[in-house]
């Protein structure tokens, strides 16, 4: 594999499992030094770092509970220290806002607490992570937000999640306009149904699987590597002319 991201540094939030881990592994395989955050899954983050290192890449993990806005300044203090030790610089080239939490629960089940928690992780944290990253992010850098197809086509079963992902789509456009003069591209990748542990229960229901696959042009659930490939393109020089876009990577779900 070509090292299209050689000498680059990347921050991937929520990198201990699922889509975030696949993104971290792909960016590292492409040559970037990858910092990944985790909230509680320390073992998963450690395993992801070890997998990257076994494959010849460079990565490290940082704990940060992004429900708490005060965790973000502390995260960047840790990040600066690690990057200075490893690279001799605190510069960042790529920021991937991927961290999330489960969004199941309809209108009748919603509470102010779970509304606040959902928006804290999916909308507030990306905003303030970008704010904190700005004086570290190199001109010509990349910001990639992980959204969802539900941000444009909201699902009745997950109204809060759908709202939060619509917010990250809006933030993507705003940031692209603000940071364009520095050559920084800002895009969102919006997955559809991806095979992760967050939807394992749904995939145990044969009828649900059949219905979802029938509604998908490519007739299958996506893999985490499918999303990581799109992120890798946007992070590379090949994606230099793409900005302010919400790219749905759903295999053609509900066309």
Radius of gyration in whole Å, from Cα?
17 Å
Strand content: 15-25%
Helix amount:
40-55%
User: Mean pLDDT, as a whole number?
Assistant: 95
CATH architecture annotation name:
3-Layer(aba) Sandwich
Q: Helix count, per DSSP?
A: 8
Biggest sheet statistics: 7 strands, parallel
- Total count of domains: 1
How far the N terminus sits from the C terminus, by CA atoms, comes to: 33 Å
Strand order of the largest sheet: 3-2-1-4-5-6-7
| SSE pattern | EHEHEHEHEHEHHHE
Gross geometry: globular
Can you say what the CATH homologous superfamily is? Answer: NAD(P)-binding Rossmann-like Domain
| Residue runs with pLDDT of under 50 for 5 or more positions | none
Could you describe the 3D structure shown?
By secondary structure, the chain is α/β, with parallel strands linked by helices. It has a single domain (9-249), classed as NAD(P)-binding Rossmann-like Domain (Rossmann fold, 3-Layer(aba) Sandwich). It contains eight helices and seven strands. The chain has a seven-stranded parallel β-sheet, with helices on both faces. The relative contact order is 0.15. The mean pLDDT is 95.
Q: What's the topology here?
A:
Layout: E1 9-12, H1 18-29, E2 33-38, H2 42-54, E3 58-63, H3 71-87, E4 92-97, H4 112-133, E5 137-146, H5 159-179, E6 185-191, H6 200-203, H7 206-214, H8 224-235, E7 246-249
Parallel strand pairs: 1-2, 1-4, 2-3, 4-5, 5-6, 6-7
Describe the structure concisely.
The chain is an alpha/beta fold and 255 residues long. The chain has eight helices and seven strands, in the order βαβαβαβαβαβαααβ.
């Amino acid at each position: 594999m070509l090292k299209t991201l050689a000498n680059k540094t990347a921050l991937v939030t929520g990198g201990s499992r699922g889509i975030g881990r696949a993104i971290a592994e792909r960016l590292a395989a492409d040559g970037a030094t990858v910092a990944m955050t985790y909230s509680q899954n320390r073992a998963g983050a450690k395993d992801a770092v070890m997998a990257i290192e076994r494959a010849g890449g460079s990565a490290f993990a940082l704990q940060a509970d992004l429900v708490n806005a005060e965790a973000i300044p502390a995260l960047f203090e840790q990040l600066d220290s690690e990057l200075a030790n490893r690279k001799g610089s605190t510069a960042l080239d790529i920021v991937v806002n991927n961290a999330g939490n489960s969004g199941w629960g309809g209108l009748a089940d919603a509470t102010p607490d779970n509304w606040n928690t959902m928006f804290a992780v999916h909308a507030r944290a990306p905003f303030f992570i970008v704010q904190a990253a700005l004086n570290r992010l190199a001109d010509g850098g990349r910001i990639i937000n992980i959204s969802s197809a539900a941000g444009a086509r909201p699902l009745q079963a997950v109204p809060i999640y759908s709202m939060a992902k619509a917010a990250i789509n809006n933030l993507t456009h705003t940031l692209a306009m603000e940071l364009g003069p520095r050559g920084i591209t800002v895009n969102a990748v919006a997955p559809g149904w991806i095979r992760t542990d967050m939807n394992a229960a749904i995939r145990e229901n044969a009828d649900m699987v059949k219905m979802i696959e029938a509604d998908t042009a490519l007739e299958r659930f996506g893999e985490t590597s499918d999303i990581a490939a799109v992120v890798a393109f946007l992070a590379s020089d090949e994606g230099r002319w793409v900005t302010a876009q919400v790219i749905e990577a759903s295999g053609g779900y509900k066309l």
